[in-house]
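hey
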């Protein structure tokens, strides 16, 4: 055996003691599950499948939408989606470098951290475009209109055009556009079928059909068809009569149209000449003559319009009747063709790997009316805004983790340097810094958070994290000050001074590593305080709006309590489990570090 096997490292000793705590190990497993679920939440709940085979071609919708801010509208989700890749790379890379060369581990971690932040900033500003691509429909329609309509041509003489057909739209949809239509239809239909066993009870008690999203879409489709059929029936007679008179009305209007176009051309020429002369600042006499020419052209153009108003109005009325009828027929054909294409398109999806737990993104509509909640199982529940509850709970883990970890990191960045300087130099420096810590500690973090949110009128999660970190560092500052005061008089520190090491080097290269292990016992409890503060703020209605935070979910459940209390309990229970697991891990870690508790 080598020397390392006989003499384990300090962290190895702590881990060995920690493993002897069964409750601590169990809590660590639970906490690890929360971390995994939060980190890889898109794999557990997403309306974009991991992989789809459509018309013999493989697509990866989830991967294409991971960094698109139009789908993941919250920046914290973009950060975690990046971390899904960078964290495993960091763990694997550090493990390999630990075998081949430990000196490269720290630069590798720094580099990966820089890449994570850089990509996060880039993706947060929407650099990733819609994977479905920019629709060509509006551009194509504009081009076709320009081919038919000349800016001098009389629009009344153009052929009657109707709204585009579904075949026309389908021709200019990208593959991901088509896939999005089909997946949404497939998703809602599947959810409707899964809820049918519970629809029996709903229909028996309410005498109504269960209003799932799919059934509501079908009802809207049928109502729209009925409205269009009524329009077709009501306008058919007038449209057919107008079609019979269209040629006669057009012939009567043609002479006036030709005169109007000629007068319009003369008016535009006169106006163009006037603008050119004004631009070169021509003499007033020349400008006066051209202005008279413009006035005369305007008068002639107005007279022609007035003389032909009777024929023009008759042609307009006839064309409007015909267009109303033909547009209704085209709209009906569009809806019927689209519905048929959606139904037939399901057969062209030969393979699909959906999300593991829920086929809904937490920002997608996932349910029908709120009344169906009391008749369906808890994993099908929807929030008061009809978003999927289970998906929101899974993504809410991200909020709690980012608040707990980020706020503690900010506290460490502020508290460790101040505490070390205070304890190392002692004397007046210690008095000044410690008095500042006492004054700063007198400001309650939660109430300062309420105050800042009220003043800034901002409920951003990043603001909450910043405030929790800025006002929550004093505990770390006190602790590191005490450790530094204890360490500064030890022989190894005196040896470093006698060797000429700088104060900064002694503090951060020698004292800090010896003071860090005891600080580890404070981290879990600080995370608990931060998570509780964010959840409490959100529960009071001061959290980030439209967020998946568990506090926001509990606030929504409170707003409909007690009638729909089932919306309150899932996030409340999970938040309690998370906090308890963190507390048990912290307690076990404290015992593992304490030499008195070791056997």
């Amino acid at each position: 055996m080598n020397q390392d096997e006989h003499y384990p490292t300090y962290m190895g000793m702590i881990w060995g003691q920690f493993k002897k705590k069964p409750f601590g190990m169990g809590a660590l497993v639970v906490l690890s599950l929360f971390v995994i679920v939060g980190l890889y939440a898109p794999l557990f709940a997403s309306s974009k499948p991991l992989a789809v085979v459509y018309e013999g071609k493989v697509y990866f919708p989830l991967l294409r939408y991971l960094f698109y801010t139009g789908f993941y509208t919250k920046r914290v989700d973009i950060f975690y989606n990046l971390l899904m890749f960078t964290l495993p790379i960091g763990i694997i890379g550090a493990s390999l470098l630990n075998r081949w060369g430990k000196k490269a581990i720290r630069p590798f971690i720094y580099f990966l951290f820089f890449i994570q932040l850089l990509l996060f900033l880039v993706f947060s500003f929407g650099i990733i475009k819609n994977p479905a691509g920019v629709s060509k429909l509006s551009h194509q329609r504009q081009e076709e209109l320009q081919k038919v309509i000349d800016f001098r041509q009389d629009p009344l003489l153009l052929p009657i055009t109707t709204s585009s057909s579904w075949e026309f739209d389908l021709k200019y949809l990208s593959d991901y556009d088509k896939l999005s239509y089909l997946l949404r239809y497939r998703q809602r239909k599947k959810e409707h079928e899964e809820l049918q066993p519970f629809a029996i009870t709903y229909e028996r008690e309410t005498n109504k059909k269960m209003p799932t999203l799919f059934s509501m879409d079908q009802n809207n489709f049928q109502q729209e068809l009925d409205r269009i059929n009524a329009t077709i029936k009501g306008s058919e007679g007038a449209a057919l009569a107008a079609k019979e008179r269209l040629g006669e009305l057009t012939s009567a209007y043609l002479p006036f149209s030709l005169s109007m176009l000629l007068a319009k051309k003369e008016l535009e020429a006169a106006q163009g000449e006037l603008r050119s002369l004004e631009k070169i600042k021509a003499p007033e006499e020349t400008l006066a003559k051209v202005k008279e020419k413009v006035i005369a052209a305007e008068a002639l153009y107005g007279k022609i319009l007035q003389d032909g108003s009777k024929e023009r109005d008759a042609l307009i009325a006839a064309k409007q009747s015909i267009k109303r009828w033909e547009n209704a027929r085209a709209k009906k054909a569009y809806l019927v063709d689209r519905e048929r294409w959606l139904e037939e398109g399901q057969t062209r999806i030969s393979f699909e790997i959906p999300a593991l737990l829920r086929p809904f993104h937490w920002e997608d509509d996932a349910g029908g009316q709120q009344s169906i909640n009391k008749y369906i199982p808890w994993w099908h529940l929807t929030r008061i805004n009809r978003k999927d509850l289970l998906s929101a709970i899974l993504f809410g883990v991200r909020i709690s983790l980012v608040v707990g970890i980020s706020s503690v990191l900010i506290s460490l960045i502020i508290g460790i340097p101040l505490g070390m300087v205070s304890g190392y130099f002692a004397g007046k420096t210690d008095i000044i810094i410690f008095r500042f810590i006492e004054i700063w500690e007198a400001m309650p973090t939660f109430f300062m958070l309420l105050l800042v949110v009220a003043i800034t009128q901002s409920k951003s999660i990043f603001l909450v994290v910043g405030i929790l970190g800025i006002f929550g560092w004093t505990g770390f500052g006190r602790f590191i000050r005490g450790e530094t005061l204890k360490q500064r008089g030890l022989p190894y520190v005196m040896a470093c001074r006698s060797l000429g090491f700088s104060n900064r080097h002694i503090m951060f290269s020698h004292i800090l590593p010896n003071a860090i292990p005891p600080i580890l016992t404070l981290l879990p409890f600080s995370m608990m305080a931060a998570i509780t503060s964010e959840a409490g703020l959100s529960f009071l209605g001061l959290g980030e709006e439209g967020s998946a935070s568990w506090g926001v979910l509990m606030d929504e459940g409170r707003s409909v309590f007690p009638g729909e209390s089932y919306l309150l309990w899932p996030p409340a229970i999970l938040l309690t489990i998370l906090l308890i697991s963190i507390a048990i891990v912290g307690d076990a870690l404290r015992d593992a570090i304490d030499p008195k508790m070791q056997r």
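The chain has two domains: 3-39+388-597, 137-173+212-353. The chain has 24 helices and three strands.
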